[in-house]
């Protein structure tokens, strides 16, 4: 490996980390603050990304890999053994010093650290743990730490990661075992799930112990998460939703992140040539929300998909479900239970909370509901209020065309 200075390593290893979706600042256009313009506020600073803490705070993280060298050859990964990319590697102490330097300058509030597999899974995990240990014990670092763990590593090492990190994640990588066998043959679904199960047990045991003894050590207090790559294999949205739901139930995950596969330089011939539409990733996040906060069962989200198991891209999954199962509508805003209000397209959890609070004191009219939502047009066919009842609008064949968002010309060179 060529001798590189810290800045060069940072450029390579921060860029290599951007494929990890589990903490990402997204939705902004790229702007550079370098060069003649000498602007400020670049969204492309090396290694700094934004993530959301469990309490909703946005925190800036130094997001890097320890190394982008890897002994594995996962087809979808730019860092795989056979990839022709520039390699770099930080030592554990270099990452510690970099984190502290960024933290003292107030650039970041924490660290997100992942790595390619250097010599063996255990060796790599030891290095990752050493970074977190040194930050916590040698430097009393109190900032946020998110560590990517390696499922093949010794469970004792993974457990040590949990003692120092706020959040740990183990990537499930692909939604189906057949996809994993095809695209990441050196990885094993049972080993990944085994590591998640061990992590869940440790998180629960420690939480129990801390209820009884305040001195019991903390263990990954922000829980565990995982990431699935979307569009690299043939898995349908239905399969992805079902897998995500199973992972939430079995392993108590805080989040499943979906990362739309993006074609990489020198891509393997088994990969699709085109990336899936980014909207697909967005629809999967919406369906994830439906299961976590809106009381939808996975089978209901799957039922909103088409015969090919794919969620529609032009409308959100909640509206797709409502259009398909119109017999559940209209819903009476003044009488329906919370579960049914949450099914109404266009009504979010906050709006439902406000409706439940307001209707204790008075009967709600269409205008009252309109004030709580972005667009009452989407809602009208699905609700009854004191002064509004749809005239069997839900029977209309062109209902989707009436309420679906209008198509917009996207920016041609948008990020
Ligand atoms: S083990 Fe991780 S870093 Fe290595 S090739 Fe596979 S996905 Fe990439």
UniProtKB/TrEMBL annotation:
Keywords of this entry: Iron, Iron-sulfur, Metal-binding, S-adenosyl-L-methionine
Keyword field contains ATP-binding: no
Known cofactor(s): [4Fe-4S] cluster
InterPro entries: Aldolase_TIM, DNA_rSAM_put, Elp3/MiaA/NifB-like_rSAM, Endo/Exo/Phosphatase_dom_1, rSAM, rSAM_sf, RuvA_2-like
NCBIfam families: rSAM_link_UDG
CDD domains linked: Radical_SAM
PANTHER family documented for this protein: ENDONUCLEASE/EXONUCLEASE/PHOSPHATASE FAMILY DOMAIN-CONTAINING PROTEIN 1, TYPE II SECRETION SYSTEM PROTEIN K
Domain Radical SAM core: 54-297
Protein name as annotated: DNA modification/repair radical SAM protein
Gene3D superfamilies: Aldolase class I
Pfam family, one: Radical_SAM
């Amino acid at each position: 490996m060529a001798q590189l200075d810290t800045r060069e390593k940072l450029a390579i290893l921060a860029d290599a980390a951007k494929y990890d979706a589990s903490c990402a600042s997204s939705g902004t256009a790229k702007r550079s603050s370098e060069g003649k313009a000498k602007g400020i506020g670049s969204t492309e600073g090396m290694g700094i990304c934004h993530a959301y803490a469990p309490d909703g705070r946005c925190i800036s993280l130094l997001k890097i890999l320890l190394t982008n060298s890897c002994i594995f050859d996962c087809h979808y990964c730019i860092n795989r053994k056979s990839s022709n990319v520039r390699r770099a590697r930080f030592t554990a102490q270099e990452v510690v010093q970099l984190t502290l330097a960024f933290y003292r300058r107030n650039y970041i509030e924490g660290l997100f650290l992942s790595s390619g597999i250097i010599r063996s899974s255990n060796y790599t995990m030891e290095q990752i743990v050493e970074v977190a240990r040194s930050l916590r014990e040698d430097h009393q670092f109190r900032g946020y730490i998110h560590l990517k763990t390696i499922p093949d590593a010794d469970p004792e090492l993974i457990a040590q990661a949990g003692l120092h990190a706020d959040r740990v994640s183990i990537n499930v990588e692909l939604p189906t075992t057949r996809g994993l066998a095809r695209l990441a043959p050196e990885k094993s679904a049972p080993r990944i799930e085994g590591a998640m199960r061990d992590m869940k047990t440790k998180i629960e045991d420690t939480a129990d112990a801390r209820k009884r003894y305040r001195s019991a050590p903390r263990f990954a207090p922000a829980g565990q998460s995982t990431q699935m790559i979307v569009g690299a294999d043939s898995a349908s949205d239905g399969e992805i939703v079902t897998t995500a739901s199973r992972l939430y139930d079995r392993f108590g995950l805080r989040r499943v992140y979906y990362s739309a596969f993006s074609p990489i330089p020198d891509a393997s011939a088994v990969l699709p040539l085109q990336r899936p539409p980014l909207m697909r990733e967005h629809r999967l996040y919406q369906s994830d929300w439906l299961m976590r906060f809106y009381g939808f069962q996975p089978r209901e989200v799957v039922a909103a998909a088409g015969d090919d198991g794919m969620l529609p891209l032009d409308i959100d999954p909640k509206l797709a479900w409502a259009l398909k199962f119109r017999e559940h509508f209209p819903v009476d805003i003044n009488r329906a239970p919370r579960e049914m209000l949450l099914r109404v397209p266009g009504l979010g959890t906050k709006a439902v909370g406000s409706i439940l609070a307001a209707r204790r004191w008075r009967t709600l009219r269409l205008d009252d509901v309109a004030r709580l939502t972005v667009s009452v047009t989407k809602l009208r066919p699905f609700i009854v209020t004191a002064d509004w009842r749809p005239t069997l609008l839900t029977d209309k064949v062109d209902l989707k065309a009436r309420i679906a968002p209008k198509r917009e010309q996207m920016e041609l060179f948008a990020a």
